[in-house]
Amino acid sequence: MSAIAILGCMWGDEAKAKIVDYLGDTADYVVRFQGGSNAGHTIVVEGKKYVFHAVPSGIMYPGTKCMIGCGMIIDPLGLVNEIRGLEASGLKFDERLFIDEKVGLVLPLHQELDAVNEERLASAKIGTTGRGIGPAYADMTARTGIRLGDLGHPAYLKQRIKELYDYHGQSLDSKALKEVMAQLDEAWQVLEKYCGSIETILSDAYLSGARIIFEGAQGTLLDRSWGSYPYVTSSNTIVDAVGIGSGFSSRLLDEVLGVFKSYVTRVGEGPFPTEIHGPLADQIRAQGNEFGSTTGRPRRIGHFDAVLGAYSARLNTLDGIALTLLDVLSGLEELKICVGYELNGKVLITPPAHPLELSKVEPQYVTLQGWEEDITGVRSKEALPANAQIYLEAVEDLLEVPVKVVSVGKERDQTFKIDM
Ligand code: IMP
User: Fold this and answer.
1) Mind listing the pLDDT tens digit for each residue in 135-187?
2) Annotation says 75 is catalytic
């Protein structure tokens, strides 16, 4: 039996799904426990691209069961469309998908509120994915939210929806209410058979020897408590969210694997100490195809930041690192890694929590030599160019965590393990 959490450790988009997919061939369960359709998890198998928003990426393996935990937030019709789209590409869901009845719902109202809030914030906007994630989580916290299980109780649901609109000071005439109810009923017709409680299934599975992967979404620096607040998502993304969002205590995890890109990216607004502008950023963006899989937005690019990396490693008690997109750095003459910040004449080795301070820090860099070779065909650490090995070891030393998986391309097989 084993339970492993695979977590994004920076601002999301670290290629977590690729690592879940790579390690997932022997998984009995893959479980999502936070986030929602703001995530865009991409897997490429034999040139075919699959994008997942709420469905765990373990659905790629026919023998793997997938779970959507109650720490997530789902758009019911969006999920139905996602299931239908994946079914059309040959993936099977029956007896394989389990959705916690306690999961909160994103309604069209939440997407409208997301857009209105962003407009209202004007120059201080967050740059959300526009999927209604923040408002839906806010309603769950305010206890005004609608949960998936409510769809099985229409009279109760109708009352809750009326109260929800009231709470937001939104009018809802009987025609509009009927429409919302009809949409939710359409979703329920598809989702009911997947809906139940996942907590006992998971603990029984673990005790009977199952291998379980917990698939994180977004990343530690987007965690609503520990990230670069207020430029964060509205869920907790660190390892402790596993227990809260699935019912499987994070105390039981056998391994925590943190996924880091070999450089840093960020979408949306907010401080980004090692951000690069100009031709180097454009080159990395083009080589790494750094455009959001949910929104298509160009991602901001930066040098590897070991200050934020070590912070993330600590918060998540990482046992290992999966270092992704190392191939993207091929051809760069020099590579910088940020090893400290200077702020008001003081050197910091942990990030300041305040956004005004984090946006003012001066990164202190070490510069390493790059490598020319194309490494997309490499399948062992020893076969990497010497400078790529030095870069990888610098990441390990600075974060004090061993690199256990390396990804050198989009395809499932462009990945290798180190002592794992
Ligand atoms: P929200 O989660 O849509 O509310 O967006 C809040 C912040 O998190 C914005 O900066 C988004 O760009 C960012 N974000 C949300 N989901 C992801 C993701 O899956 N990858 C990267 N950034 C994300």
Assistant:
1) 999 999 999 999 999 999 999 999 999 999 999 999 999 999 999 999 999 99
2) no
Catalytic residue among 21, 41, 139, 150: 41
- Domain residues of the chain, as ranges? 2-101+194-256, 105-191, 260-417
Residue 73 Cβ contacting ligand 1 at under 6 Å: no
Distance from chain centroid for Cα 51: 13
Determine the atom of ligand 1 nearest the C-alpha atom of 267.
Answer: 12
Q: Is the CB of 13 under 6 A from ligand 1?
A: yes
Between the alpha carbon of residue 256 and those of residues 60, 250, 301, 348, the distances in Å are: 22, 10, 26, 27
In 192-317, where does DSSP find H-type helix? 199-207, 241-246, 279-287, 306-315
With CA atoms as reference, report the closest residue to 324 among 6, 5, 62, 18.
18
Taking the complete model, does pTM exceed 0.90, yes or no? yes
Nearest atom within ligand 1 for CA of residue 41:
19
Is-catalytic flag, 254? no
Q: Are 370 and 333 in contact (CB under 8 A)?
A: yes
> In 3D, which of 349, 365, 353, 362 has the Cα closest to residue 303?
365
Question: Residue 76 belongs to what H/E stretch?
Answer: helix 76-88
How far is the CA of 185 from the CAs of 27, 36, 325, 395, in angstroms?
Answer: 33, 20, 42, 50
The fold of the 260-417 domain, in CATH, is Adenylosuccinate Synthetase; Chain A, domain 3 (3.90.170)
CA of 71 to the centre of ligand 1 (A): 16
What is 2-101+194-256's CATH number, 2.60.40.2550, 3.40.440.10, 3.10.100.10, 1.10.10.10? 3.40.440.10
Give yes or no for residue 133 CB within 6 A of ligand 1.
yes
- The tens digit of pLDDT for each residue in 218-243 reads 999 999 999 999 999 999 999 999 99
Q: Which residue has the tokens 């520990």?
A: 226
pLDDT at 353: 94
Ligand 1 center to 200 CA (angstroms) = 31
Please give the distance, rounded to the nearest whole angstrom, from the Cα atom of residue 125 to the centre of ligand 1.
12
CA 227–ligand 1 middle distance (angstroms): 12
Tens digit of pLDDT for each residue in 360-418?
999 999 999 999 999 999 999 999 999 999 999 999 999 999 999 999 999 999 999 99
Query: Domain 105-191 is in which class?
Result: mainly alpha
Question: In testing the pocket of ligand 1, which one of 10, 133, 233, 293 has its CB within 8 Å of the most ligand atoms?
Answer: 233
Q: Is 409 in the pocket of ligand 1 (CB under 6 A)?
A: no
